[in-house]
Each structure stands twice: as structure tokens, then as C-alpha cells.
Amino acid sequence: AQLGEREVEIVHTGVGSKISGGRLAEYLRMRKPAFVISSGFAGGAENSLRVGDILLAENFSDTELAGGVQGAFTNEGTKVHTGKLFSAANMIDSAEERENLWRRHGAVAIDMETETLARECAAQGVRILSIRVLSDTPQHPFPLPGEFLFDIDRQRTPLGKLLGHVLIHPAAIPRLLRFSRQIEQARQALAAALVKIVQANLG
Questions:
Q1: Using alpha carbons only, what angle is made at residue 139 by residues 133 and 143, rounded to the nearest 5 degrees?
Q2: Cβ-Cβ contacts under 8 Å for 105 (sequence gap 6 or more)
Q3: Is pLDDT of 3 > 90?
Q4: Closest CA to 134 of 176, 174, 83
């Protein structure tokens, strides 16, 4: 795809370390991009962040690329949070577990892929920039335990399991509708941020 003067290739790596790492490794064996932007959703672990906030993961991002992003967003007047991202093996929906990760690792947000993607990029000598948008926070958590929202092995929402839970617990419906609005808010914020980053001509 062409975005301004930039040629952009989009690789859907999926959710979770195993699948995302394999898909990126396969792509990097065929192509040698100037750099990789790892983007997607993350869950907040620290109380000051809000749904829709953009996080530049300082512990996974190339220093030069990260500096360019900060400069571009400063010029635009848009706030980008910088902090540590923690890549977990499983979906973490417990507020207590998230707080423990924040206190033990200094992680302000959690995802499930970036550490593996960064490792694959390092192995191929490709720079990486990690940009995540918060889809949920301690104040606005998952509406249900993660097992009802996404099946990592099948890479999709387990609709039968979700519907079965909702039939037994109809009070979950308003929470699911709220979460749907959160996801849309986060999606729009991430898309806008990625356009700015690509247009910033980072190198």
C-alpha cells in the first residue's frame, strides 16, 4: 500500500507469542523492510492511563525511531505516553495481577506479542518500533474473563462459549456493549497515530 510517499506493507501477525512470532519470521525471511512498526492493542496496568491512549514502548523500540515519533507527535500537539510494555504468555484480566506486573517490572501496559516480535527483528537485524493503544484499563476492564473473549489457539472469539455465558449471565450484556465502544475508540486512535508515524518519515 502507498501512504503519501511511503510504501507500507501490512502483516497481520495475530494474537499471542507463538503465532505472531512465526508469521513475522516468515515475512522477514522474504522481505527486508527499513523497519517494523509493531502495533496493536494493550491493556493498562497503571492507573494514570486511559482507554485510547497511545503508548510508545521504550523497552522494545529502536531509540532513533522512538525519538522521531516523539518529535512528530510533539509538533502535532498530541500526547504519546512512553513507558515499559510487558508481554505476557496469557490474557491477564485480573486487576491484582496487572498491579503486580506494574510494581515488579515497572510495566505500564501489557500485551502478548511484542517481546517475541522484537526478538525476531533483532535476529534479522531489523529495527522495530512498538506502538500500542490501550483498549482496557483498571478503571475500564474486560467485561468478562479473557477465556470468553478470545481463543488464542483458534485466533477468534469463541462465540458458542460467549453466548452460553451471556445466556446464563445476561447482566454481562451492558459490559460487552461498553467494551465494544472501547475497542472502537482504541481502534480509531491507533489508526490516526499510525498515519502520523508513517508520514513522519522516520528513516
A1: 80
A2: 84, 86
A3: no
A4: 83
